[in-house]
Design brief:
Elements (H helix, E strand, L loop, with lengths): L1 E6 L5 H15 L3 H7 L4 E8 L1 H13 L5 E4 L2 H4 L49
Antiparallel strand pairs: 1-2, 1-3
């Protein structure tokens, strides 16, 4: 199994704009999802694909003027449900729901330690 990553930090802005347009056209992505993928950070484009699929994606991105990184992953890592990085171009569907405001989450212990607050920037004024 392979993961395909797009590393946008070394890509020129003009090329990034072209890649954003091509992502929308090729994968029918909404503009907001395409812009997330070209924000200059590293994003996984496809998770747990075959070598043939990874090569096809690499060739497609190369035709747009950018390279992708292909990483080998074990089948267990590819199916790990704890990894919540969305896989593009699919549309993630979640069966999760939000807890009500103030409700404790039963799977997480409640942290009761107060946060540290820096007041070094505050001053008292005399009137």
């Amino acid at each position: 199994m392979f993961d395909v990553w797009f590393d946008g930090e070394s890509v020129e802005p003009v090329v990034m704009q072209r890649v954003e347009t091509k992502l929308q056209e090729a994968f029918n992505l909404p503009p907001n999802q395409a812009s997330v993928l070209v924000n200059g950070k590293s994003h996984r484009i496809k998770r747990g694909c075959t070598a043939d699929e990874a090569k096809k994606l690499a060739a497609q991105f190369a035709s747009w003027g950018v390279d992708v990184r292909i990483e080998t992953v074990s089948s267990q890592a590819a199916a790990d449900p704890k990894d919540e990085t969305p896989s593009y171009p699919s549309n993630p569907v979640s069966s999760l729901t939000l807890a009500a405001a103030g409700e404790t989450i039963p799977t997480k212990p409640r942290d009761m330690t107060p946060p540290t607050v820096s007041t070094d920037h505050l001053q008292l004024e005399e009137h």
